[in-house]
Sequence to fold (137 residues):
Amino acid sequence: MATVKLMTDAEADSIPEVKEVFDDIRETRGSDFINNVWRALAYDPKGLKRTWEHLKSVMAVPGAIDPKVREMIYIAVSAANGCGYCVHSHTAAAKAKGMSEEEHGELMQIIALAGMTNHLVTALQVPVDPEFDASTA
Fold:
């Protein structure tokens, strides 16, 4: 259950700062759909704009990492952070960008494996091998 009201399109259209962000979301994504996270953030127009601009600057620009892989990374981090909303929304985005069921299955196994081994290494306090120390590379 949301802790805030989700802003309707009619309400958003009456607040220029929110309308501008919603319009940019629609244009950037090529869709009329505004998902609930943006509707929840809309009651803080400055926070909405800041969050959208940050997300757009990382997820919606050309870069060295393929857009599908970016979404798959987002799924992994969202699973690790326990954000069910983000797991669902970025799974849908990854599938829209071409993630196959086989890739999704492998991703789930990688997430599960990383979680398990991370917990073991943390519990055992295993020191980093000098060969893996990124600060000396």
